[in-house]
Specification:
single chain; 315 residues; Arc Repressor Mutant, subunit A
Length: 315
C-alpha cells in the first residue's frame, strides 16, 4: 500500500510499519498520536507537518478534534505506555526538548517529533520518501528489532549433555525443563542423549531427528510428545519425562497415552514426572501411575520409584 499524497490514518500506519514498528505501535491509536504530534488531520498536505511540543492531554484533545475519537482520561497511561514510550525508545519522538532535566512528574512533560521524523513525514507521498526513510532508519534499532532482542535476552539457556546450548522461550515450565536436562540427566541418565526438548511457546522445540530415526522412535502426534525425551545408549533405555509445575504428571491416562505413542519402539521405557519441589509434588502424588518415577528439582539427588520389586533392597 502506498502512503498517498495527502494525510490519512492508513497512510500513517504504513509510515509506522516502514519505521519498523510492530502491530501495536502501528495501529489506529498510534497513527493518530503521530498525526497529533505532527499537527495534521486527514486530508492535510503532509508538507504542513510541524513538530511542536505537546503533553498527553493536548495530544488527546487533538485526536478528539481531528478524528472524533474521544479517549477517556483514564486511558492516558495506555497512550503513554504503549505508544509514546516506544516512539521515544526508537527515536521517532523526543521528550522535553526544551528542558531534558524536567522532573518526571512535572505537568509540563512533553513530546515532539524528532527532526528526522518530521522530514520523513513531510516527504510522504513523494518520490523522495524512500531516501528520507533510509536516513531515518540508518543507525537505529527499530522497535521490531528491539522487541526481538529483548525476547532473545529473556530466553532460558539450556546446556544439553553433549555441551550444546539451546534456548527456550521465557516463562511457563521452561525453567523446570532446564533443571530436568541439566540436573536430572547427569544423575539418572548419565551419557544420555537428549532427543526432544519441548518449549512452552511451541516455537523453540529441539528435535534430534537423526537419532530418533536410528533407534526407531517416531514423534507421531504433534502436541502429544512428553516435555523431554532422552535416550541412554548403554542401557537401551528411553526416558519420557513430563514437567509438572501446574499440570501434566504421568497419571494412568497419560501413561497409557505414552504407551500407545511409544510402546512399539522396542526399547524399555522409563516414565518420569518431574516437579519443581516436593511441595508441588504433594498435590499430585495420589494421581501418579504405578511403575513410574517422580523427581523433584529441589532435591535433585533423589528419585521416587512408585512400586516395583526390582528396586527393593537394603542400604
Amino acid at each position: 500500500m502506498s502512503i498517498g499524497p495527502s494525510v490519512s490514518v492508513e497512510g500513517t500506519r504504513e509510515l509506522l510499519r516502514d519505521l519498523g514498528m510492530d502491530d501495536e505501535r502501528s495501529n489506529e491509536r498510534s497513527a493518530m498520536v503521530l498525526l497529533a504530534l505532527a499537527h495534521l488531520k486527514p486530508g492535510d498536505d503532509w508538507r504542513s507537518a510541524t513538530n511542536g511540543m505537546y503533553g498527553i492531554r493536548t495530544i488527546m484533545d487533538r485526536i478528539a478534534e481531528a478524528f472524533g475519537v474521544e479517549y477517556k482520561p483514564n486511558t492516558r497511561e495506555k497512550i503513554r505506555r504503549f505508544t509514546l514510550h516506544q516512539f521515544v525508545q526508537v527515536g521517532i519522538i523526543e521528550e522535553n526538548a526544551d528542558d531534558p532535566t524536567r522532573p518526571i512528574n512535572s505537568p509540563k512533560w512533553n513530546y515532539r517529533l524528532t527532526f528526522d521524523t518530521l522530514d520523513l513525514v513531510t516527504w510522504c507521498g513523494t518520490s523522495w520518501y524512500p531516501d528520507q526513510l533510509e536516513i531515518c532508519l540508518e543507525g537505529i534499532t527499530t522497535w521490531v528489532e528491539y522487541s526481538s532482542e529483548r525476547r532473545e535476552m529473556a530466553k532460558v539457556p539450556v546446556t544439553l549433555p553433549d555441551g550444546t546450548e539451546v534456548k527456550l522461550s521465557a516463562g511457563g515450565q521452561n525453567m523446570l525443563i532446564k533443571a530436568m536436562v541439566e540436573e536430572f540427566c547427569p544423575r539418572f541418565a548419565p551419557g544420555g542423549k537428549v532427543l526432544y526438548v519441548g518449549d512452552t511457546s511451541k516455537v523453540d522445540e529441539t528435535v534430534d531427528a537423526e537419532t530418533l530415526e536410528r533407534i526407531g522412535v517416531k514423534l507421531l502426534e504433534r502436541g502429544k510428545e512428553p516435555d523431554l525425551i532422552v535416550w541412554r545408549e548403554d542401557k537401551g533405555w528411553l526416558y519420557l519425562m513430563e514437567a509438572c509445575s501446574t499440570h501434566g504428571p504421568v497419571d494412568v491416562t497419560r501413561k497409557n497415552e505414552l504407551i500407545e505413542l511409544f510402546g512399539d519402539c522396542g526399547h524399555p521405557i522409563a516414565y518420569v514426572s518431574c516437579f519443581p519441589s516436593r511441595k508441588v509434588m504433594q498435590d499430585y502424588l495420589g494421581d501418579l501411575a504405578w511403575e513410574t518415577e517422580a523427581w523433584c528439582a529441589d532435591t535433585p539427588d533423589h528419585m521416587i520409584h512408585l512400586d516395583g520389586g526390582k528396586f527393593m533392597g537394603s542400604y
